[in-house]
Amino acid sequence: MDERGRLATLGLLASLGRASRDQIAAFRDAQLRRVVGLAHERVPYYRALFDRHGVRPGRIKSARDLIHVPETSRSDVQAAEAGALLARDVDAGQVLALRTAGSSGRPLVLRRTRGEERLRSALRLRAFLDLGVRAGDRQVSLSVAPRPGDPRRPHRLQRLVRAAGLFRRRSLDVGRGLPAILDELRRFRPDVLFAYPSMLARAARLYADDGSAGIRPRLAICGSEILTPALRGQIEAGFETTVRNWYGAHEIGLIASQCPRSDLLHVAEHNAVVEVLRDGRPAVEGESGEVIVTALHTFAMPFIRYRLGDLATLGPTPCPCGAPWPTLLAVDGRTWEVVTLANGRVIHPVEINRAIQNAGMPWVRQYQLTQLAPDAVEFRISLRATPDPAALGGLRNALGELVGPETRVEIRVVPDVEPEPNGKFRVVRPLAEPAGSGDGPHGRP
After folding, report:
1. Which residues contact 225 (CB under 8 A, 6 or more apart)?
2. Which of 9, 54, 243, 250 has the fewest CB atoms in 10 Å of its CB?
3. Please, which pLDDT band fits residue 3 given cuts at 50, 70 and 90?
4. Residue whose C-alpha is closest to residue 227's, from 204, 200, 203, 207
5. Dihedral of CA 142/147/149/153: which sign?
6. Residue 427 CB: number of other CB atoms within 10 A?
7. Which domains does the chain have, with CATH numbers?
């Protein structure tokens, strides 16, 4: 990033709570022009892409003009030579090489300068402060197999902050087992928990069931997968805490975070341009579509009109709370995380969530739809309480209406619906997934 862009970013962060809608949009568009211009000038991949499609960087003056730029997928990035993705004026030996989680078996290597990484951390910290995190909070992050050998070293200021006892954070590997994790939480007594929502809900249920005390976090921040109403309720009840949602991506950083007054997500326009496309056109409020993002502070390895593979529902702009941000009503899941049936119906996680809510089934604790064949699905559920036969019949009818009479539905009650090996939970498990599917919904809290 050039010095002018760096100063503008720091200035906006300092005044973020007072910035108007016009000021944020002007900053976004200025950063966008820098990113597009420098990518064409210095990054071989984007120079070739723009030239091949006749894109002139000077035409991209605002977020509205991005429609003229071709999209880039994760597979495109994986197929490109590493040198073609890196800006020519960046010393490859001086950048951080960071790998995504690679839950699909195809991790992506990301390259950022230390300055970009520090700015990314500052943006994330500002979002967490807006969500209710305080400087003196004891924080715990629950994760699966934390990455060894992270090349990021604390900056001098970070070391000073930690020495002063501020922003204390501990990472716990849930692979040790939830009973051991709960013992650690009792000892550390965190004020804030960060975790996948399904993982945190499992811990909350175990904590509530064993009847012990000692864990009363003020706040739980969830990300990386769909936060369903059922999961939110279990976390709130088990830990007697407030739950906030956070949406990000390894490639982009912060994308959106929950409005403090509602369940809407404020889009972080100071960090990324976020498009929601429905059948190739911009979605309107209330429509679900594919999320396309452009990072505004990533110059060493830019991501311009990058297809995350996520689906989201567009909300109002600006937020009804009075904040100047555009909003998302929900992050709905992965574009490939849908079931396509032999009868032509396409079932998305948000439809299953809606069907369960509309049917009024409080005895269902967690659920997952697995496609067994083109014309057969299995619905696995874990229970809060034992339903009567009529209630189970109502569930079967609701599922039958969702998938159609041609589709065989099996309902299986299980003690617990297990997460994937990477710790994330999926509401839908299709019969087949396309090659190169990614890690999302993305991002660590």
Report:
1. 196, 197, 198, 424, 425, 426, 441
2. 54
3. low
4. 200
5. negative
6. 24
7. 70-333 (3.40.50.12780), 339-429 (3.30.300.30)
